[in-house]
């Protein structure tokens, strides 16, 4: 859906963005009604109304900071249907890890007046400049549906370099914003860092869609560095490589299939299966059990999701 927005006329973009914000608002309201007290919900609703009506910025900053004190920090009580609804609004949005204070703060962000894009961005920059780690997590998690999402690319690219793991994960994992808005250079750096810090790649929204030859080369080079240091690499690394394999990469996959641990062998086999090169298919045929498991649908990239 967000990809569609990017290709729309400016007026259509605004209309679609407003529609998404409205749907997200309704979902967050519904989830919070199930998860917080009536008193806490009334407080939040009052603040949201005041902010939307153009209250002084000081009120927004005070309320944004106070949300955990009024709502608490417990997890949202989301059902499978709730998660499906989130995916329907924005494909790739997976708020299964969100807490009530994160949802509440997001509602306040969505209430900020935003007709003037530069003024809105100025306010958001002020929030970032004073935010603690928990607030930064909320800010980055909200980028898929806050107003003017196209203006937040540079900020997101900066956040990828954060040495705070929670902040990096808020950007990279379960968040559709990077896949929909970042250029290849920033996207590739994010995926490579996820591999480096041990983040599960299957939680990166749009991973398969945004795979590209430059990323494949970066990941293979990283694997070589790890092997030279007598260290292993996550099997998920090969998920972004198979479609772009050349003869050198196939030689690497051959080594993994011959000498890797069982999960590494499975991943290398899947990478071979995704390559159009005859050499890759010939290599895979030498491992009939793995080949058969892939053909029957018993071995997929989802097999690594619990690792």
Describe this protein with a few key phrases:
307 residues, mainly alpha, 2 domains, 17 helices
Summarize the structure.
By secondary structure, the protein is mostly helical.
Describe the structure.
With 307 residues, the chain is an all-alpha fold. It folds into two domains: 1-182, no CATH class; 211-307, no CATH class. It has 17 helices and no strands. It has helices at residues 2-6, 10-35, 38-52, 57-71, 80-89, 100-111, 117-130, 133-141, 153-160, 165-172, 177-181, 184-197, 213-228, 247-259, 262-274, 278-285, 288-295. It is elongated. The relative contact order is 0.07.
What percentage of the residues does DSSP assign to strands (E)?
under 5%
Major sheet attributes: none
Runs with pLDDT <50, length 5+? 1-15
Count up the domains.
2
Taking the alpha carbons of the first and last residues, their distance comes to: 30 Å
Gyration radius from CA atoms, angstroms: 22 Å
Structural class: mainly alpha
Q: Give the helix proportion (percent range).
A: 55-70%
Count up the helices: 17
Q: Mean pLDDT, as a whole number? A: 92
Count of distinct strands? 0
What are the SSEs and their pairings?
Blueprint lengths: L1 H5 L3 H26 L2 H15 L4 H15 L8 H10 L10 H12 L5 H14 L2 H9 L11 H8 L4 H8 L4 H5 L2 H14 L15 H16 L18 H13 L2 H13 L3 H8 L2 H8 L12
Helix pairs in contact: 2-5, 2-6, 3-4, 3-6, 4-6, 6-8, 8-10, 12-13, 14-15
């Amino acid at each position: 859906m967000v990809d569609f927005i990017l290709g729309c006329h400016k007026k259509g973009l605004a209309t679609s963005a407003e529609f998404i914000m409205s749907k997200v608002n309704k979902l967050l309201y519904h989830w919070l009604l199930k998860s917080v007290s009536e008193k806490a919900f009334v407080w939040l609703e009052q603040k949201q109304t005041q902010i939307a009506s153009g209250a002084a910025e000081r009120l927004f900053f005070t309320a944004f900071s106070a949300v955990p004190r009024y709502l608490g920090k417990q997890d949202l009580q989301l059902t499978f249907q709730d998660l499906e609804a989130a995916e329907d609004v924005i494909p790739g949005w997976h708020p299964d890890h969100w807490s009530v204070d994160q949802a509440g703060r997001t509602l306040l962000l969505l209430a900020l007046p935003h007709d003037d894009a530069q003024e809105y961005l100025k306010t958001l920059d002020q929030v970032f400049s004073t935010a603690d780690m928990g607030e930064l997590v909320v800010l980055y998690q909200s980028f898929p549906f806050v107003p003017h999402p196209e203006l937040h690319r540079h900020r997101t690219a900066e956040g990828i370099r954060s040495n705070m793991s929670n902040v990096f994960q808020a950007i990279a994992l379960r968040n559709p914003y990077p896949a929909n808005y970042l250029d290849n250079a920033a996207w590739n750096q994010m995926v490579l860092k996820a591999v480096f810090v041990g983040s599960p790649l299957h939680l990166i929204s749009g991973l398969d869609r945004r795979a590209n030859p430059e990323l494949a080369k970066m990941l293979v080079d990283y694997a070589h560095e790890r092997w030279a240091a007598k260290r292993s690499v996550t099997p998920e690394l090969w998920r972004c490589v198979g479609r772009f394999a050349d003869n050198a990469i196939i030689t690497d996959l051959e080594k993994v299939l011959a000498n890797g641990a069982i999960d590494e062998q499975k991943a290398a086999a899947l990478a071979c299966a995704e390559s159009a090169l005859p050499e890759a298919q010939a290599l895979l045929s030498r491992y009939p059990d793995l080949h058969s498991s892939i053909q029957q649908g018993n071995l997929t990239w989802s097999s690594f999701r619990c690792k």
